[in-house]
Amino acid sequence: MTNRHSCPSPDDYEFETDEISELTEHINSEHAGEYQREDWPDTEAGRAARPKAEAEDDEEDDGDDLETERDLDE
């Protein structure tokens, strides 16, 4: 049985291959720098590795954490 590798991009990019080197080449050419995103990789293991509180904060972001220029001067 062959192990299929699919693109881990959270942007619904459909790409599958049997070769890990081909997947690596695809990620480096099509998704360079995306690995720095908080939602990368969008795989079961990647989602499980993220802190639960952080995932909930992203869903409930109401902008209260933004500092105004006046707050910074005080």
Written account of the structure:
Strands 1-2 form a two-stranded antiparallel sheet. It has one domain. The longest helix has 11 residues. By secondary structure, it is mainly alpha-helical.
Kindly list the characteristics that best describe this protein.
4 helices, 2 strands, mainly alpha, two-stranded antiparallel ribbon, single chain, 74 residues
Question: What is the molecular shape?
Answer: globular
By DSSP, the count of extended strands is 2
Q: Give helix % range.
A: 40-55%
Distance between the termini: 64 Å
The largest β sheet comes out as: 2 strands, antiparallel
Mean pLDDT across the residues is: 75
β-sheet strand percentage: 5-15%
Secondary-structure element order, N to C: EEHHHH
- Find the structural class using helix and strand composition: mainly alpha
Query: In DSSP terms, counting alpha (H) and pi (I) runs of 4 or more, how many helices?
Result: 4
Unreliable spans are none
Rounded to the nearest angstrom, the radius of gyration is 18 Å
How are the strands of the largest sheet arranged?
Answer: 1-2
**Total individual domains:** 1
Structural topology:
Layout (H helix, E strand, L loop, with lengths): L4 E2 L9 E2 L2 H11 L13 H6 L2 H8 L9 H5 L1
Antiparallel strand pairs: 1-2
